[in-house]
Write a structure and sequence with these properties.
By secondary structure, this protein is mostly helical. Helices cover 77% and strands 0% of the residues. The N and C termini lie far apart (196 Å).
Length: 260
Amino acid sequence: MAIREELVASAVHFLQDPSVASSTIENKISFLRSKNLTQEEVDAALSRSSGVSYTNVPPAGPPQPYYQPYPSQYAWQPPPPPPRRDWRDWFIMATVVSGVGYSLYSLGKRYVYPLIAPPTPERLEQDKKSIQEQFDRAFALVEQIVKDTEALKAAEEQRTERLDTALAELETAMADVKAANRRREDDSERIRDEIRGLKDAIPKAMDNQKEVTNGRLSEINNELASLKTLVSQRMSAGPAATSSIPDYSTKRWTKAFSAE
């Protein structure tokens, strides 16, 4: 049977496609046999696509029955050529490129150029005035701080003087308190000694007074005993002797009173 060149050419073009070239030989043969190509046509297509003879390649499966080939309008066609660009495509491309370029230029002029452009004399003068104002505010702030520091220093000195005066007065008061405590301790010690002396003298005085009282009581008892004896004698002697008793008793009482 004669080889159908149209089908073989379409098969060669298909096999040379990069996406098909990486497939295995068996897959390629199976695909070509499924398109009703004979074994001779498959071998010819493989040989032409790779430059290697595949006459000895065994068939991938049982022989396929022969079918009537498709008409030429259903055969594989080569890919269409890339579309040609006319003036409208170039105009659209130029418009897009111009718009993008103008946008980039506007953005650069608005945001990038002020950052890298040298300052103008007006800008320099404005910056100079701003810096001078900042320096003036800084100097005024420093002067205010100096004044506040001087005021705080004067107030601190006054407070220190008052504190020194208060400390001196406190020391004087403490010295007076210590002296008063010392005098009070001396007075307390003297009073304690006097009380101790009185404590020792009172028992002695009481003992002396007791001895004196006991002596007087003894004398009184003796006098009473003598008086009792005389009374008894007078009562037993009679009325004549009674008149002499008062004189004797009177003398004894007068003598005792003089002794006291």
